[in-house]
Give the backbone structure.
Amino acid sequence: MSIVRYQIVEHDGGWAYKVGDVVSETFPSHAAALKAASAAAARQTLAGSTDGIVYQDGEGRWHEELADGRDRPSTEVVDDP
C-alpha cells in the first residue's frame, strides 16, 4: 500500500503543506498549516464509492477501469525541517 506524505514547509511568507511537488495554500502560522495537513491526511484515508473511471494516459490512450473506493493509501504528516 502506498503512503501519502504531507510535509509542513515555509511558503510565501507563511506556512503550507506539500504533497510531492504540490503545495497547498499559505497559512498564517505553522500551527494552522499543521492542522490543515492533518485534516487533509485524515480525509485521504476515508473510503468512498467503487465506481468506473475513464482517463487518458501520457501517450494519448484512453483507459476504463473500476476504481475500488475502499483502496485508500496510508498517510503521514511530517513536521521536520
